[in-house]
Structures are given as structure tokens and as C-alpha cells.
Amino acid sequence: MSFRTLFLVLIVSIVLLFSFLLISLNKEVIALDLFFFELSPSLGTSLLIFFLIGTTLTLILELIFFLSKKGNK
């Protein structure tokens, strides 16, 4: 196996462990008041959802930036 494959497996394992710890250790129920409705998820679930949304948004914006920079050359 190459270094990239091992690194990818390590990163995926760390993210999965982080996700499990967030969900299992934060069982407190919080109230999320969105525009027209209210949700009551656990703290770990809401942290994980917002982390994944932020990661996805960052990856999309970086992809747009690099594609526009590549098109200018």
C-alpha cells in the first residue's frame, strides 16, 4: 500500500472515531429554533451535522476557487 492510501485510511478512521465520540458523549438535548419550526436533537448530533456542513461548504468553495484559478491561466 502506498503512503497516500495509508494516510487516507488514517484520516477516515480518525473522522469516524471523532463522529462516534461526538454522538456518544454528548447526549444532552438542545432546542434549535429555526425559522418556522423547532428541533430538539442531541448536542453531539447537532455538532456533527454542523461540522459536516462546514466541511462540505469549504470543499465546494475551494473547488470553485481552484477551478476559476486554473481557467485564468
Please give a structural write-up.
The chain has 73 residues and is mainly α. The chain is 73% helix and 5% strand. It is built from two helices and two strands, in the order H-E-E-H. It has helices spanning 3-25, 43-72, and strands at 32-33, 38-39. The model has no long low-confidence stretch (mean pLDDT 85).
Characteristic key phrases:
mainly alpha, 2 strands, 73 residues, single chain
Largest sheet: 2 strands, antiparallel
Regions with little confidence, pLDDT below 50 for 5+ residues = none
SSE order, one letter for each helix or strand: HEEH
Percent of residues in β-strands: 5-15%
Helical region count? 2
Q: What's the overall geometry?
A: flat
Mean pLDDT: 85
Distance between the termini: 35 Å
How many beta strands in the DSSP annotation? 2
Q: Please give the radius of gyration in angstroms.
A: 17 Å
Structural class: mainly alpha
The strand line-up of the biggest sheet is: 1-2
Helix content: over 70%
Short description:
The chain has helices at residues 3-25, 43-72, and strands spanning 32-33, 38-39. It has 73 residues and is mainly alpha-helical.
